[in-house]
């Protein structure tokens, strides 16, 4: 479930950075003015804001008519259904809206998900600084839905941002309506506009949706399981590699071999070992990683540091090893490494994902290869 929400914040960052890439909203959108029941100040702001309605097969939502639709194909995030952004922000941060939808278990609630999200935002989201929860409240519009509101500093712009997420589980799908506004914009009438957008979100008839989409939901569940590690790495790479992005060939390789990332059964571990191209060494990867972005490799070395953290994806381990060629390999493993500790001699199998550099404790720079790990074993 948890991968369904985390990309939303990254999308907000992308929209902030790429506002100039937005395109015109769909011609079918319906313009209308909307009033609210807020205070006199926010009522004036809301009633002077013209809205359009975006209609999709499964849902509809109002958004400010001046906002522009963003081409979400740039994000390689199939869960994102639609996104809109203010093309003329008054501050460095561009106010924006996006809606994601993912298959989920039928018993998931917004409250349970919000607790995981809050912990993630407070402790692990490197693209959010000083996240503070403002409030979480249940919402009566749909069963087990709720609204999470928090504030954080956007690292690139240093702008204070108010994040509002409307979390809606429905018939095997989980919708996240995420609205990110600069704090000045939010305080100056933006809250009333956010409330209007949340109130306007409407799902199609639930009985019809459940009847006509049973096969689709099952297919989405399979797709979700297949893409979870690949989607996780689309977030990891930009946070590790400056201006980096997960290569399409690596993404597709992980999805096509999703049972191997991670490989947890004896049969899958055997398959992962069989996938390895034993002719490829770290020397090849450090010379030029690009020919091997869709190839399973095996690398052995001593652990310099292993760390685990709880995230919205569950436990994620980062394993830094130095191999026999004194090259640094940093592996990302979706799961716990068990009793493996610093100093252990290990073998990691996985797909080369990126080459990058980082500052070391001696004040210099270390070149490294990032590996999406399939298996790790102590030698």
Q: What structural class do helix, strand and pairing data support?
A: alpha+beta
The radius of gyration is 22 Å
H/E topology pattern: HEHEEEEEHEEEEHEHHHHHEEEEE
Low-confidence parts lasting 5 or more residues at pLDDT below 50? 1-8, 17-46, 207-223
Tell me about the largest β-sheet.
Answer: 7 strands, antiparallel
> Termini separation (Å)?
34 Å
| Nearest-integer average pLDDT | 82
Strand content: 35-45%
Number of strands: 16
Q: How many distinct helices?
A: 9
Task: Provide a concise account of the structure shown.
With 379 residues, the chain is α+β, with helices and mostly antiparallel strands. Helices cover 29% and strands 36% of the residues. Helix 2 (40-47) packs across helix 4 (183-200) and helix 6 crosses helix 7.
